[in-house]
Amino acid sequence: MGTNSKILGVLGGGQLGRMLIQSAINYNQDIHILDPDSNAPCKDLAQKFVVGSLKDFDTVYAFGQNCDVITVEIESVNTEALEKLAKEGKQVYPQPHILRLIQDKRAQKEFYKANGIPTAEFILTENKAEVIQNSDFLPAVNKLGKEGYDGRGVQILRSKSDLDQAFDAPGLLEKLIEFEREIAVTVARNAQGDLEVYPSVECAFHPTANLVEFLFAPADISQEMEEKASRIAKDVILKLDMVGILAVELFVTRDGEVLVNEIAPRPHNSGHHSIEANFTSQFEQHLRSVMNWPLGNTELRCPAAMINLLGEEGFTGPVLIEGKEEAMAEKGVYIHLYGKKITKPFRKMGHVTLLDDNVDNLKKRAQRIKELIKIKSTL
After folding, report:
1. Hey, which bits of 101-224 come out as E strands?
2. Domain-located, residue 262
3. What is the pLDDT of residues 190-231, one digit of tens each?
4. From CA 299, how far away is CA 278, in angstroms rounded?
5. Could you read off the pLDDT of 150-192 as tens digits, one per residue?
6. Are 183 and 171 within one domain?
7. Helix (H, G, I), strand (E, B) or coil at 113
């Protein structure tokens, strides 16, 4: 056992759990992991690794029995089991009812509306027929209420000719926002109510995979916009009354509005740069917030870019990485590989953080590193 006698249980053992463990090691904090994949990235790093379903009541409940504090690195978990554990005195952060709310994009949007949080106009739909009935609302984004993630469960319906792509399941139609840029703000809160906000970052998406390809910190926005985004992110975590770390994805519109797109109650792809670029990484902050330790300083040490390393198209199988050593030789390049043995097209295999005092230089170098490091397969 470490010097911290409380055991932290994490539902999910992917790369977010792996980077959380990397932070926890510095504090002798023991972590138990539950994940359905026997080869998950956390397998060899946790003090205890349990293979099992995150959605099965009995599995999650039994796993939680041996932990003092329970958190998640993925939202898709059995909230009933977490509720029972919380009633029995386990500390569960983020709280189970918040996870349930976030699992359902419809409920999430209704929450924003009820709490005066700015978000795109929307209509709830039960099925494809209802989407078609609301064709005058187009152009819009059709989102599945549940089970969508990483760009899955999202369709852009620009005109009536796109309506055959609509989801035939409970979802929502959201006005297509003509945004100037997409930014994200990470905010954290512990059980004492201490709250810290990270400077906003700017996200650039892959044109077809709907995943973040680059991220730049700080975001290229005015001080007024920065303050507005920061205020909204704080408002969301306070109105949720949530303990833990929350990534708030926002649209900055052409007419100066800042609208909440979606939120994630865990470390998020938009905060990976913080390991090297901020005084406190999002993973350490997650740990601090759920363990009710003092929160860390969130300021940027210097401008940063983050490049997602995605599996190249056309390659599936054991991993082969090209360009790694050439990139490593450069100043300010930090490579993080996630320990995944098999690559697939667009699978998140790692990321690179790049630090540079000159923002223009940073953007050029980020593009070059993206072209330099390729994740292919030996097959």
Report:
1. 122-125, 140-144, 154-157, 171-175, 179-189, 195-197, 201-205, 212-217
2. yes
3. 999 999 999 999 998 776 666 778 999 999 999 999 999 999
4. 6
5. 667 899 999 999 999 999 999 999 999 989 999 999 999 999 9
6. no
7. helix
CB-based burial of residue 120 (10 Å sphere; 0-12 exposed, 13-18 middle, 19+ buried)? buried
285 and 359 part of one domain: yes
Q: For the domain that residue 344 is a member of, what is the CATH number?
A: 3.30.470.20
Give the tokens for residue 5: 């006698």
Same domain flag for 156 and 184: no
Supply the pLDDT for residue 150. Answer: 61
Total tally of structural domains belonging to the chain: 3
Contact 211, 270 (CB under 8 A): no
CA distance 8 to 28: 11
Cis-peptide, bond into residue 170, ω within 30° of zero: no
Residues 250, 156 share a domain? no
Residue 187 lies in a domain: yes
Is 110 inside a domain boundary?
Answer: no
- Sort strands 69-72 and 4-11 into parallel, antiparallel or unpaired: parallel
Residue 171 is part of which domain span?
Answer: 121-175
Tell whether pTM > 0.90.
Answer: yes
Residue 333 and residue 327 in contact, taking contact as beta carbons nearer than 8 Å: yes
* Residue the block writes with tokens 């082969």: 320
Same domain, yes or no, for 199 and 347?
yes
Any residues with CB less than 8 A from the CB of 146 and at least 6 apart, and which?
103, 104, 105, 170
